[in-house]
Write a structure and sequence with these properties.
This protein is mainly β. It has a domain of about 90 residues: Jelly Rolls (Sandwich), CATH 2.60.120. Helices cover about 0% and strands about 45% of the residues. It contains no helices and eleven strands. The strands form three sheets. The protein has a six-stranded antiparallel sheet with strand order 1-2-3-10-5-8, with no helix packed on it. A three-stranded antiparallel sheet has the order 7-6-9, with no helix packed on it. A two-stranded antiparallel ribbon has the order 4-11. The radius of gyration is 17 Å and the shape is globular.
Length: about 130
């Protein structure tokens, strides 16, 4: 067995801060913001759901990371397999929920993140 030398580079940019946010339905960790894409890991608590909403100016790609996620997109109810991806075009209604246990979904949004871009059509949390 030979020893492997590990080189540590000190001139690399530090890792960006991860923004975390707690919401009534669960929460998320955002890894990028206002880049050409925004990357979030969304956590949905058991039996909870997000608002039914649509975005005027951005598309989203959802990737199911746990069994039990429910995607509602443009009137379709999708029970994705782990690893399955669903693309949501700007203007399409969408909602994410948990059918039982807590679930995680990776969201990649294409376009500048802007809270004003969110139109909540049905909101259980009083932000409509």
């Amino acid at each position: 067995m030979t020893n492997t030398e590990v080189t540590v580079q000190t001139d690399l940019r530090p890792e960006p801060a991860v923004e975390t946010d707690r919401r009534p339905w669960g929460g998320f960790e955002r890894f990028t913001l206002n880049e050409p894409s925004t990357v979030k890991l969304i956590h949905v608590d058991p039996g909870q759901r997000l608002s039914l909403q649509r975005h005027r100016d951005r598309d989203e790609l959802w990737v199911a990371l746990d069994p039990g996620a429910v995607f509602e997109v443009a009137g379709r109810r999708i029970l994705p397999e782990v690893g399955e991806r669903v693309f949501i075009r700007a203007g399409e209604t969408h909602r994410l929920s948990s059918a039982g246990p807590a679930v995680r979904v990776m969201e990649i949004a294409f376009g500048t993140f802007d809270e004003d871009d969110i139109e909540r059509l049905e909101d259980s949390y009083g932000r409509a």
